[in-house]
Amino acid sequence: MRRAFAVVLFLVVLFAATPKEAASGQAWAVIDAETGRLLQGHNENARLPIASLTKIWTAFTFVESGASGDITISPEAASAEGSSIYTVQGAKMPSEALLHGLMLRSGNDAAYALAEHAGGSLEGFVDMMNEKALYYGLKDTKFMNPSGLHHDEHLSTAYDTAKMLYFAMQNDEFRKIASSKSYIYKGKDGDVRSWSNKHRLIHTNPDVKAGKTGFTKVAGRTLATYFERDGKKIIIVTLNDGDDWKDHTDLANQTFKDYDLVTVAKKGKYSILPGVEGELDEPIKVLLSPDEKERITHFVRIPRGKEKISTGSWTVSFDNQPIITTDITIHQ
Predict the structure, then answer these.
(1) What is the pLDDT, as a whole number, of residue 155?
(2) Which residues contact 172 (CB under 8 A, 6 or more apart)?
(3) Does residue 8 carry a pLDDT above 50?
(4) Model confidence over 170-183: pLDDT tens digits?
(5) Where are the chain's structural domains?
(6) What is the pLDDT of residues 226-243, one digit of tens each?
(7) What are 25-38's pLDDT values in tens digits?
(8) Confidence at residue 191, expressed as pLDDT on a 0 to 100 scale
(9) Global model pTM greater than 0.85
(10) Which of 6, 7, 150, 227 is the most buried (most CB within 10 A)?
(11) 191 Cβ neighbours under 8 A, 6+ residues apart
């Protein structure tokens, strides 16, 4: 039987991270899509415009709000500036279609229609977006609109934006929409539309499962991509990157080469304290480079009380920063 202690199981040894060759973008971040941990980056905490990557949070905020049903397109939505799915003032479209138009074709009109429906007003929805950003710890992010059109105060970071996609992909409805290669809308009035996802790598790279494109003259090209290969899952975000398709492919290949999916705690029973055992139903796995494996520590929390069977928590930390927590069944 393996033995585990309630607090620290391993000696933490710090190593200097090997610097990675920067992509051509002004800022970029690569994170573990299972834990949200930053794996590598360049200017990843610089606050910059993110253009239509904003729509990741727009879609996530709408989906989590519980709003749904047919949405009447307002004059303001129909005339929204920028990219469009060409909605018609006064027409009704289901929220599902508008969400696909938002994520696949980056429709600003879809963003405004969804925002007005869920938030009661554009301003009300933007408040919802900012409140959700604070709740999820996106401390360097501020939204001024749901589309990503330029505003001097509408800013985020490569790291925060990667975490937007990390949190959003945990929602099944969002994941289904963001992973769609295409969508066909058939309206009740005979209106039929077919949309193909603007994210080129979704169509050409089998490792790419989801993502979002963006562009404004001020922000430049912005791109978010969710990759998965051999059980390894990562998210890459580049901001102001004129060669983003190549950079995302290169960064993904390098990351998959440099990081292993390491089992840091095996499935099974552990002796926690005298007379106290814990059981993990599933192994705990995290992405680690070879020189990071000794920087992992563990903490097991045992609930108060004398119940024979209860649920505790097992937290894995990297450099003493928690990166993943899972349930452990406690027997005493």
Answers:
(1) 98
(2) none
(3) no
(4) 999 999 999 999 99
(5) 2-14+263-331, 27-242
(6) 999 999 999 999 999 999
(7) 699 999 999 999 99
(8) 85
(9) yes
(10) 227
(11) 91, 185
User: CA gyration radius for the chain?
Assistant: 22
**CATH fourth-level superfamily of 27-242:** DD-peptidase/beta-lactamase superfamily (3.40.710.10)
* Contact of 311 with 328, CB cutoff 8 Å: yes
Cβ atoms of residues 33 and 168 within 8 Å: no
CB atoms within 10 A of CB 16: 6
Residue 285: CB atoms within 10 A of its CB come to: 19
- The tokens describing 27, both together, are 């800022």
**Token code pair at residue 24:** 């051509």
Catalytic residues: 52, 55, 106
CA distances from 221 to 98, 190, 242 (A): 23, 36, 6
Residues 107 and 52: their CA atoms lie apart, in Å, by 9
Closest C-alpha among 211, 210, 188 to residue 97: 188
pLDDT of residue 293: 92
